[in-house]
Amino acid sequence: MKKLVKSTGVVFLVAVLMAVVVACGGGNNSGGNAGTNEGAQNNTPSTGNNSAANSEEPVEENLSGAVIIDGSGTVYPLMARIAEEYMSTKQSGVSVQVGRAGSSAGFKKFIPGELDFADASRPIKDEEIEQLAENGLTMDDVIEIKLAYDGLTMVINKENDWATEMTKDEIVNMYLSGHYAADDVVKWSDIRPEWPEEEIKFYGPNENHGTYEFFYEVILEKQDLVATANLQQEYSTLVDLVSKDKNAIAFFGFGYYVSNTDKLTAVKVDFGNGPVEPSLETIGEDLAYAEFTRPVFTYLNGQYAKEKPQVLDYAYYVLEAAPQFAGETGFAPMPDAILAEYKSQLDALK
């Protein structure tokens, strides 16, 4: 009897299971498991297609960690804007820290390996390359990236209505030590007799900045600046000093002028074919403001890019975003063909 009850229970259980199977398969009309799966896909065609499409798209990896950047104060507005956008729209888990110690100060940190990127408003020097070698790196381990073009801009006080246009020679000579006066106390009237007989207050960034080196080495051809020049570390200080003194004049990157057009006037420079105003339309190696135009850079430690995924990912983003944000931060964008070459160099690091 017990066997009969047990057998009856087994039969009942099998019957229940079969009923469940029939019930599940009955709605598909295909009579098999494969058909059941196909039917499920056919009932939701759009979802199935999207899933297939998504599976073919590269999945962006969520990264974490830090990217450390320091260097040029001129490049800072552009790099800071790129970093801000990267952290808010691409990789919120990555902390991109951007400093503005100056080009030379940035290389001093980059050479011993303290930075992932060194921003610079002038090319790396031979002695800095030698120092890299002393620290176990060569330029094969470093990728030099030209980010954009900057135009060295001479700025004056808003109340200065006489020196709004100057020749290149007038700008060079007024900053040369001993050209107008042995004690380097130069008056506006020394440059043009009809200008005020008042002392010019010279300003500019200090030796930490690539902008100073560009002005000294390229514009002044390595001749001494007037001893009366007041050189500052912070560009915001220069803006403040010039904006409060009608006899002041300073030089710095175009981006800082663009951010302070309500406080400063940019001097139009005559290079021989009439006064040229610095602008995104004139700044470029083949454009009217070419003689005061220079590329600005960032230098990537390739070893770190191989070791740290967030550094390599940020390097790709810099190439993508630099042309997009160059204009709003006061730089003329680098041609796409040049940026494409850098992308190939990054690809080789994988």
Quickly list its features.
350 residues; alpha/beta; six-stranded mixed beta sheet; disordered N terminus
Q: Provide the β-strand percentage band.
A: 15-25%
* Distinct helical segment count: 14
The spatial strand order of the largest sheet comes to: 2-1-3-13-4-14
Mean pLDDT: 86
- Given the helix and strand composition, which structural class is it? alpha/beta
- What is the distance, rounded to the nearest whole angstrom, between the alpha carbons of the first and last residues? 75 Å
Total strand segments: 14
Which word captures the global form? elongated
Q: Could you give the order of the helices and strands?
A: HHHEHEHEHEEEHHEHEHEHEEEEHHEH
Taking all Cα atoms into account, the compactness measure Rg is 32 Å
Oligomer type = single chain
Q: Which residues form runs of ≥5 with pLDDT under 50?
A: 1-55
Which range best describes the helical content: under 10%, 10-25%, 25-40%, 40-55%, 55-70% or over 70%? 40-55%
Largest sheet: 6 strands, mixed
Keywords: Cell membrane, Lipoprotein, Membrane, Palmitate, Phosphate transport, Signal, Transport
Main location: membrane
Subunit structure: The complex is composed of two ATP-binding proteins (PstB), two transmembrane proteins (PstC and PstA) and a solute-binding protein (PstS).
Membrane topology: Lipid-anchor
